[in-house]
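Quick one, probably user error.
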């Protein structure tokens, strides 16, 4: 019977993570499909460089608003209902963008899709983290990021296969996962930690007993939640000195995840490669290779976060991203677009994608969902998502302009420098969270041993 209960709880947790992570699939598809659609939209709507960046960036602006408004909504309505609201917005935005006949409709629809993406990016990782056991939390939360890159990969394949068809069908296919997310969330339980925070103790106990190996483990975890719980904290509490290390680590990763250039590659790789002399079909195939690389890297990262650890994964992979970008920048500068040179360029951009996605992109939502105290987890994750989308907005609105000003080679050299700075940041400020309960991480914040440097100082002092 205990073995059966353990398997049943594990299966339910997996099912919850898969359905919730469908929000990540929509996240990836709706952000990635613009890469291929932009080639057709530019011709049909006579887009300039500026207007192309506005159409691309509208979804990011919406995401920035969505992630900020999702925090108070999720604390009031619950994590599950907030994800359902996001699913409805996904459906509305997809219908409007599919039938858009003017630039303003494209922008408005992608703004609505952005609201949904921002809400999903803020709340789905929290929902999964709060319902997962500590020993599997990394893998299950990374399922969200895996869904994101699968969505991006599907969008790249779709863009290539429909390159002679219409951009409307490219966007319209997004209605399928949006419907799955909305219907699936109806049958999932609320987060037990949110229920405990709102006084629904017996409801929280019931959920934990369904997703843990034994009733004893569920009851012990619930008691830890109750013991560590404070009243819901206002946003200003994130400024308290004892919480600051969590803010620095999580927001730093969120900013660097974008400023290191990964979404510049996702959004504009076909445009950059087509502009550099590659054919349109070849440029779109490059995006397919990037999508496959992202999927492989995220699957690997999902394994590594619970085996190597979050911090060690980033420290091991980021140097590879730096080297790949240096090679890519050099190949653009010497103009190697034919023969072996072209293959080196593709290998370099695929290598960068794997090293960057497998480290920062895997860690961003996981670390953000782990490091904050329960009383401010919603607002803290909102800050993480806002930082991510704010940086993404900057990247989406400036990448083509950067390429025009610095050239593709100079742009990739700039991203190489930022990736090197990201490596130093992780070494200094990001702690290891593998295998530690959310309550234990909160305790390390309170006793001042959260950041790696502070932890090392405490160990030296103890000796």
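Nope, works fine. Designed sequence:
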């Amino acid at each position: 019977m205990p073995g059966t209960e353990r398997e049943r709880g594990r299966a339910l947790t997996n099912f919850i993570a898969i359905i919730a992570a469908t929000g990540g699939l929509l996240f990836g598809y709706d952000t990635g499909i613009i890469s291929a659609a932009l080639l057709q939209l530019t011709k049909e709507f006579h887009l300039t460089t500026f207007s192309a960046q506005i159409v691309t960036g509208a979804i990011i602006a919406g995401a920035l608003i969505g992630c900020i408004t999702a925090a108070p909504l999720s604390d009031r309505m619950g994590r599950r209902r907030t994800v359902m609201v996001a699913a409805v917005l996904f459906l509305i935005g997809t219908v409007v963008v599919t039938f858009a006949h003017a630039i303003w409709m494209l922008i408005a629809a992608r703004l609505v899709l952005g609201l949904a993406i921002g809400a999903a990016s803020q709340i789905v990782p929290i929902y999964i983290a709060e319902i997962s056991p500590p020993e599997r939390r990394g893998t299950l939360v990374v399922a969200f990021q895996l869904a994101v890159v699968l969505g991006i990969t599907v969008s790249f394949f779709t863009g290539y296969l429909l390159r002679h068809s219409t951009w409307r069908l490219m966007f319209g296919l997004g209605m399928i996962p949006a419907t799955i997310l909305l219907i699936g969330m109806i049958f999932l339980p609320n987060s037990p930690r949110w229920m405990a925070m709102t006084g629904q103790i017996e409801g929280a106990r019931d959920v934990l007993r369904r997703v843990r190996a034994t009733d004893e483990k569920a009851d012990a975890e619930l008691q830890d939640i109750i013991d560590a719980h404070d009243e819901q904290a206002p946003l200003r509490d994130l400024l308290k000195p004892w919480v600051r290390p969590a803010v620095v680590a999580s927001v730093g990763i969120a900013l660097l995840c974008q400023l290191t250039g990964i979404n510049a590659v996702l959004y504009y790789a076909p445009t950059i490669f087509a502009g550099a002399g590659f054919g349109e079909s070849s440029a779109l195939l490059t995006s397919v290779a990037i999508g496959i690389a992202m999927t492989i890297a995220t699957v690997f990262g999902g394994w590594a976060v619970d085996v190597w650890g979050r911090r060690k994964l980033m420290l091991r992979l980021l140097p590879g991203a730096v080297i790949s970008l240096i090679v890519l920048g050099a190949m653009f500068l010497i103009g190697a677009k034919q023969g072996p040179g072209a293959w080196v360029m593709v290998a370099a951009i695929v290598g960068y994608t794997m090293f960057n996605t497998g480290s920062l992109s895997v860690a961003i939502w996981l670390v953000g969902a782990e490091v904050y105290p329960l009383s401010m987890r919603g607002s803290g994750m909102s800050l993480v998502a806002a930082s991510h989308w704010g940086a993404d907005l900057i990247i989406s609105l400036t990448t083509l302009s950067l390429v025009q000003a610095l050239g593709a080679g100079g742009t990739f050299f700039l991203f190489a420098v930022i990736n090197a700075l990201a490596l130093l940041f992780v070494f200094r400020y990001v702690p290891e969270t593998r295998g530690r309960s959310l309550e234990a991480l909160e305790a390390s914040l309170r006793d001042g041993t959260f950041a790696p440097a502070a932890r090392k100082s405490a160990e030296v002092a103890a000796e």
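DSSP finds 19 helices and no strands in the chain.
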